[in-house]
Amino acid sequence: MLFNSYEFLFFYFPVTFAAFFAIGRYSRSLAALWLFAASLFFYGWWNPAYVSLLIGSILFNFAMGSAISREHQRGRLASAKGLLIAAVSGDLALLGYYKYANFFLSSANQLLGTGWHLEAIILPLGISFFTFTQIAFLVDAYRGEVKERNFIHYGLFVTYFPHLIAGPVLHHKEMMPQFAQAQTYRPHWENVSVGLTIFIIGLFKKTVLADGVAQYATPIFDAATVGQALTLFEAWGGALAYTFQLYFDFSGYSDMAIGLSRMFGVKLPLNFHSPYKATSIVEFWRRWHMTLSRFLRDYLYFALGGNRKGTVRRYVNLMVTMLLGGLWHGAGWTFLVWGGLHGLYLCINHAWTHLANRLWFKPLLPKQLGKLLAWSTTFMAVVIGWVFFRASSFDAALEMLQGMAGLNGIAIPNAIAVRLGNSWQTLTDLGFTTYLGGGSQFIYTWLWIAFLLTVVVAMPNTQQIMNRFEPVLQVHLADERSEIRLMAWLYSALSWKPNGIWALATGVIAGLGVFAMSRISEFLYFQF
Amino acid sequence: MGGANLHKHFIQVFTATFLAACFLGAGLNYLVDPYSLFGTRRIPGFNERKPTASERVRVTKPYMASRAKPRVVIGGNSRPEIGLNPQSVCWKDTDQPVFNTAIPGADVFMQVRYVQHAVESGKARRILFGVDFLDYLVDSKKATGEVDWDRLGRSFDGRLRAGSGIFGMPLSYQQAEDFLSGLFSMVAFGDSIMTVASQRDPLSATRREDGFNPALDYLPIIRNEGQAVLFLQKNAEVRKRLQHDDLGVLDVDSGQSMPLLALRHLLQWAKSRDVEVVLFINPYHSDYLLQIEASGKWKVFEEWKRQLTAAADEYGVPLWDFNAFDPTSTESPPPRDDRQSMLEWYWEPAHYRHELGDLMLAAMLGRSCEMNPNLPHFGVRITPASLQSHLDSLRSDMKQFIDQNPEVLRRLFEPNS
Question: I need a labelling partner for A222 at 20 to 30 A (CA). Which of A143, A468, A517, B15 fits?
């Protein structure tokens, strides 16, 4: 079920919410069981057949986690480690089969000229998310940091519908205490108003902003797929439109998840903190899909040795982590290239910081100019990365990049050229040409881009808007140097309070968000 | 007020505002009715023109037809939608209401289903059905097989059921969805505002209540960029559509095709209900006809006409062919920098103006239509007996035209020379 669907908003959520607190008055265990069952229903709405897969995965991991905890408690660490390896291998095998089997077969077929074939496998929704959540649980159990005896609570932790399909990736230890608290089972007006506002902001981001700009990204990437040569503005228009679509889509989803959960009195971790304000790639990754970055750092990068084994190993570990992070997003070479590109970016970023600190004691450029340069370089690097992330194939990505490099020329729609009067002659001298049709598409693309760019660099984010009411588990404190910040006065002006003006504004935004649902679309991160 | 009360009050005001915003938005969408979905009265200066309706005609035309209850129905694709005017002087009072249910870009089956719906809505007695070459081209290397008509109609059949109309219960699921998404929709809301704002713009596009598209969208393009641009764009499009080698009108095994089966279905259906059908082949500008020839598809074009003639003969309906190399179709488009001149009969190579449509109506209905008697007689009624000589004469007219106007070929196929 989609958060931005009528059945979710007007049927599923009100019923689940009301019944949870009604049952919670009599029995917390039954209320938790209700939420667990409702979450399974939420999952099954999409494909009932895969509910059994989800339940199987939960039973397996709960049993293995309990066994690991038991061995750990008895001091039998070798046996605990054996169980951990078996359990993680089981999880990865399941993920590997559903997500990567066809990719490996087709890659092998290409490389070896073989003709192996598997029936098309439908990717179970959210499998990457629920697998990672449970691997983290197993590792924490092995480390002795968690143990869980209550199957219902464990099942609820994994399936809890706000995060089940596209995260945030949760830690058992940050969720279970909240499910155990008595006050979680009693409704609180503050949780409802804060959660509702966060949800509405997320809904608006998804249905109005992300879906609004998507129509200017999709046709360009489709054209690249069929090998159509794209001119400079077309290619950049498509790449930038997608850059904003993805951010508002996924951060909108995360806001919705955080808001929904907050209405139940359960706080989730932050997943985005204005990533497009970042002035370095390292900072970008502290702000983009933060719970996945945290997972990859804690359970992969650190497991590989992190930065403890020398500089070279540190860079190798970074590359490996980012390559696997890329592959986590999808079974395809473009995702691998995207991950590799970001690994490279991070290595360059670290090397540059290392060098710059030794070579120049004082900044070479005036502070603001240096920051602007750092921001624009970071942003460009991210946009180029998204081209690989979105493109249907490596060739399509190259087609886009060729266009963005101006190799296919610079052209504007004829309808606009004829309105430029004498300035058109100057542009013609510079090598501009025209193409027929697409005038309004061109104008709307760039209006949307200008508008959304302003929003992402100037507006406070949801966490900042809601900062008085502890919207998330850990508050992200950004260093002022790590981001560009325009119109700083907006931050205090837009600090949310439960007053009439905010209620009116939120009501109108909710109306717009619901009205925009008439073009229902899935969240991009559902595919991962 | 205590903390909890502040939050409670917030939720109350929020809920009231949210509901008010939804109902105000829906109310505006209903009153303006930007797509003519609800049939709200059109008020000049407020909502008479419908500039944003063009992309919604697949959704709205069935509802418009239900309200119009036509006696005569015009069907086909965008060519008759733009070319045949239900308010033409050619119609007699006894023909009215005439409804144009032609759907741009629709395949033949959809065109047929929309015609059937419009006929049933008004117990119409006559259908004018335009057939268009490109709509009948199929991959001749593929077999048609068993056509699953139910599946083909799944995306629109729900709105074609009887009882259409906002309160014309019972509503199908699709009808309810159409109305709710017309009311509670951000795009519709934006379009409502756009509709009201563009009422004073004489060049703003519209769709009339009788289903006709006056093609006003072309005017700003012609005024700003010149009609030559429209020709360039459409010629490029047609060239692309015709470039596949395997295009034909019949499939590889059964000697049939889905579009022809759909057409026969219409003819059979109309015959069983005693509804008169007039079939007509849309006129094309000579540019278009020369593209067919240049793509090597002229034989396919002739085969298509043979198939149409056979089908028309089988069901006893007249078939008119409006393809010709005559003064109407051979006007040259103005030069690229000319933003004033306009052709008399065509918008661009594929779409004729309703002035030409009036000549067609005069021929098909056998009426004078208060026209200048000096205007050329337009259109040929073809029968199995006259078909071959008609095809021969069109081919020889084309050859003669090419011989006498070599510059046209240069303009079409060597545009940069």
Answer: A517
Strands (E), A414-493: 432-435
Just list the catalytic residues of A: 329
Angle at alpha carbon of residue B286, lines to B285 and B287, rounded to 5°: 90
Nearest to B213 by CA among B392, B50, B415: B50
B409: exposed, middle or buried (Cβ count in 10 Å: 0-12, 13-18, 19+): middle
For residue B325, what are its two tokens?
A: 């190399």
Judge whether A437 and B217 are in contact, CB under 8 Å.
Answer: no
CB contact under 8 A, B25 and A207: no
Does residue B80 have a cis bond before it (omega within 30 degrees)?
Answer: no
- The one-letter amino acid at A293: S
Among B5, B15, B189, select the one facing A515 at the smallest CB separation: B189
Quick one: tokens of A31?
Answer: 């209320």
- Which chain B residues are within 8 Å of A518, Cβ to Cβ? 181, 184-188
H helical segments located in A181-310: 189-203, 211-225, 232-263, 281-287, 290-296
Residue B357 has a CB neighbour count (10 Å cut-off) of 25
Query: Helix B286-294 and helix B298-315: axis angle, to 10°?
Result: 110
Facing residue for B7 by CB, picked from A498, A504, A519: A498
ipTM of the complex: 0.89
If interface means Cβ-Cβ distance under 8 Å, which residues of chain A face chain B? 188-190, 192-194, 196, 207-208, 414-415, 418-419, 436-437, 498-500, 502-504, 506-508, 510-512, 514-516, 518-519
Pairwise CB contact (< 8 Å): A415 & B184: no
Q: Which two tokens stand for residue B316?
A: 């006893």
Q: Other C-beta atoms within 10 Å of B197: how many?
A: 11
The rounded distance, in Å, linking the Cα atoms of B261 and B307 is 11
Q: Is A156 within 8 Å of A29 (Cβ atoms)?
A: no
Residue type at B341? S
Ordered DSSP codes for A106-143: HHHHHHH---------PPPTTHHHHHHHHHHHHHHHHT
- pLDDT in tens for each of the 528 residues of chain A? 889 999 999 999 999 999 999 999 999 999 999 999 999 999 999 888 889 999 999 999 999 999 999 998 888 889 999 999 999 999 999 988 888 877 777 777 777 777 776 666 777 888 888 998 999 999 999 988 877 788 998 999 999 999 988 878 888 888 888 988 889 999 999 999 999 999 999 999 999 999 999 999 999 999 999 999 999 999 999 999 999 999 999 999 999 999 999 999 999 999 999 999 999 999 999 999 999 999 999 988 998 888 888 888 999 999 999 999 998 888 889 999 999 999 999 999 999 988 888 887 777 788 889 899 999 999 999 999 999 999 999 999 999 999 999 999 999 998 899 888 889 889 999 999 998 888 889 999 999 999 999 999 999 999 999 999 988 887 777 777 889 988 888 998 999 999 999 999 999 999 999 999 976 566 666 655
Q: Judge: A518–B224 Cβ closer than 8 Å, yes or no.
A: no
Buried b / exposed e across A321-332, counting CB within 10 Å, b at 16+? bbbbbbbbbbbb
